[in-house]
Amino acid sequence: MELECERECSRGEDYRLIKLTIIDYTRKKEQAVVVECRGHDAARFHSIDHAHGWEQDVVGLVEHKDGKKKLLVCFVCETLKAEKAAEDHIRQFMPKLAGLDAVVNIGPMSIAGLEFGAEEPDVRQDV
């Protein structure tokens, strides 16, 4: 979900904030984080420290809450699949999403500070 800005952003037209929901299907838990997104189809996500100038609910999502570990996210697209290659990839790995005319971003993602269960190591995986 893309979040709207109250004022004109000065970070370039490819800059936006998005609410990224990380889901652990095994434990049936999820955690949302607002990340900076740059690039259009070949996206890059990075954690942000503040969201000054955005709507109050967006600022509330970004601000660090006392006692809660800050969630850090980093993703850089290394491979972009579009059209038939993207559709084949989606049919293989996410068949319920087939037919949506989407692109697929593949690259390393690191997530630190995720607390779904007991003490778990930070996660780094190619997605």
The helix count comes to: 2
Mean pLDDT: 78
Structural class: alpha+beta
Low-confidence stretches: none
What is the 3D shape? globular
Order of helices and strands: EEEHEEHEEE
* Share of β-strand residues: 25-35%
Radius of gyration, taken over Cα atoms and rounded to an integer in Å: 16 Å
- Helix share, percent: 10-25%
Strand order of the largest sheet: 1-2-3-4-7-8
Can you describe what's shown?
With 127 residues, the protein is of the alpha+beta class. The protein has a domain at 16-77 and 107-118. 14% of the residues lie in helices and 34% in strands. The chain is built from 2 helices and 8 strands; from the N terminus they run E-E-E-H-E-E-H-E-E-E. The strands form 2 sheets. It has a 6-stranded antiparallel beta sheet with strand order 1-2-3-4-7-8, with helices on one face. Strands 5-6 form a two-stranded antiparallel ribbon. Strand 1 and strand 2 form a beta hairpin. The longest helix is centred in the C-terminal third of the chain and has 11 residues, at 83-93.
Features:
two-stranded antiparallel sheet, alpha+beta, 127 residues, 8 strands
Summarize the entry for a quick read.
This protein is an alpha+beta fold.
Structural topology:
Blueprint: E1 16-24, E2 29-38, E3 44-47, H1 56-62, E4 72-76, E5 79-81, H2 83-93, E6 104-106, E7 108-112, E8 123-126
Antiparallel strand pairs: 1-2, 2-3, 3-4, 4-7, 5-6, 7-8
